[in-house]
Amino acid sequence: MFGARQQTSRDIFLHCSLLTADEVLILPVWRIFHNLFRHPLRRFPGPLSHGASRLPIVAQLWRGKLVYHLEVLHARYGPVVRTAPDELSFLDTMAWKDIYGRRVGLTSGVPEIPKWQRFYRVHATKGQTTIMNADTELHTRLRRQLAQGFSERSMREQEGIIGGHVDLLLRRLREGRGTVVNMTTWYIWTTSDIISDLALGSSFGCLENQDWHPWVRQFASSSKEFTYISGLRMLGLDWLVGMILSKILTLTAEALKKRIAQGVERPDLIEELLKNLKSEQSLDFESIHGTARSLILAGSETTASLLCGVTFQLLTNAEALERVKKEVRSAFSSEKEITLLSVNSLSYMLACINEALRLYPPIPSGLPRYTPPGGAVIAGHDVPENTVVYIPPVAMYRTPMHWTDPDSYHPERFLNQPDFANDHLDALQPFSVGPRNCIGMNLAFAETRLILARILFSFDLDLSLDSVNWLKAQDAHFLWRKPALNVTLIPVPIPN
């Protein structure tokens, strides 16, 4: 009897083992067959390997080369490419509105194509809702409350906060006059100090201490880890994702609690959220915390990348550098005249910034959406439901489909010059479009113009030889992994 039971147990174990082997070996093969020959996206062009599995695209993401890989795929396959079994990438300018706009091309009555939550929800936040991943109703309420802090009036009131940090940056740079300085670090410190002051009520103090604040250091060192998290989530392996962001969450929560405890009104970005903290329409602390953290993430590294990008492009294009220096120095007679408002008159500098955004978009990765039930019409294509769709910025901004001499730096293309009359300027949307475009766009432009104008007014700049290939050396792990941008600063004599 015992032997019979033992035999039965072995039979059951063997049967289960065979079933497990079938699942491991047969199911993936069936899935690949389905993706290649039965999936509704099989009619779209793209490599067979990418249509079979998401692994090739995730591998490129982890290598930091996905943005360049997508550029190659579009050059080979055209304006619409199947980049994974359930994923499409678009280069048509119509796709901006169709993917990210409101009520465009939808057959389901959904007001917008929702964000792909595998990309936007981070495991370490335990499902925390922020402005980055909120549903339409909550996002609208959040955005309405935040809009006050990003208004033109608020930015004028924030001039003292922003200008104070820029003043300190200029003082620090003068202390190192005539020597080589790493502008990547100085730009990150400056933008991090500004946005932390505006979003948490206190500065990280990087410029004051001339050192990395733990939050800033943690975020700067974690960009590659964020990419691994995204890749694992794209593969459906959420259970492998660790608590990488726990330290960042703790630091920002403590700063926000201190800001609330102060009970003082100030012209920052979250004042309106805090005013409503105890009202029926308010968010809970965790959502306000998550939103404040999102503002810091979106407003520090990205603005620093824009400053690095325009600085590098100017220092490698002598004619543009001389022209923008002349514009700045002829517009102002002293540093005190350079304000958030007065820099709006610098039309050529704005063109320089726009062209830098084209060649070096601060967020180089596409922002994926997920088509709702009923699907959507995107750039004239019927796209079935449950499809990941996006626009890859680097490929969009460097394709000959939309740009004359796309790999070269030409600010004149944004000044209605006839040589660039055929350029599709509406292809450039570095802050996205629609109801979920970047709420901090005006702040980022104002910050960049103020800092750049102050530096160009005060210094002559020379790029170090070891930074000549600064742009070519970079990987993109959701954000750019920026190496040192070494520059020699020579102070310009202050006019009497």
UniProtKB/TrEMBL annotation:
<dbReference type="GO" id="GO:0016705">
    <property type="term" value="F:oxidoreductase activity, acting on paired donors, with incorporation or reduction of molecular oxygen"/>
</dbReference>
<comment type="similarity">
    <text>Belongs to the cytochrome P450 family.</text>
</comment>
<dbReference type="GO" id="GO:0004497">
    <property type="term" value="F:monooxygenase activity"/>
</dbReference>
<dbReference type="InterPro" id="IPR036396">
    <property type="entry name" value="Cyt_P450_sf"/>
</dbReference>
<dbReference type="GO" id="GO:0005506">
    <property type="term" value="F:iron ion binding"/>
</dbReference>
<dbReference type="InterPro" id="IPR017972">
    <property type="entry name" value="Cyt_P450_CS"/>
</dbReference>
<keyword id="KW-0408">Iron</keyword>
<dbReference type="Pfam" id="PF00067">
    <property type="entry name" value="p450"/>
</dbReference>
<keyword id="KW-1133">Transmembrane helix</keyword>
<keyword id="KW-0472">Membrane</keyword>
<dbReference type="GO" id="GO:0020037">
    <property type="term" value="F:heme binding"/>
</dbReference>
<dbReference type="InterPro" id="IPR001128">
    <property type="entry name" value="Cyt_P450"/>
</dbReference>
<dbReference type="InterPro" id="IPR002401">
    <property type="entry name" value="Cyt_P450_E_grp-I"/>
</dbReference>
<protein>
    <recommendedName>
        <fullName>Cytochrome P450</fullName>
    </recommendedName>
</protein>
<dbReference type="InterPro" id="IPR050121">
    <property type="entry name" value="Cytochrome_P450_monoxygenase"/>
</dbReference>
<keyword id="KW-0812">Transmembrane</keyword>
<keyword id="KW-0503">Monooxygenase</keyword>
<feature type="binding site" description="axial binding residue">
    <location>
        <position position="438"/>
    </location>
    <ligand>
        <name>heme</name>
    </ligand>
</feature>
<keyword id="KW-0349">Heme</keyword>
<keyword id="KW-0560">Oxidoreductase</keyword>
<feature type="transmembrane region" description="Helical">
    <location>
        <begin position="12"/>
        <end position="33"/>
    </location>
</feature>
<keyword id="KW-0479">Metal-binding</keyword>
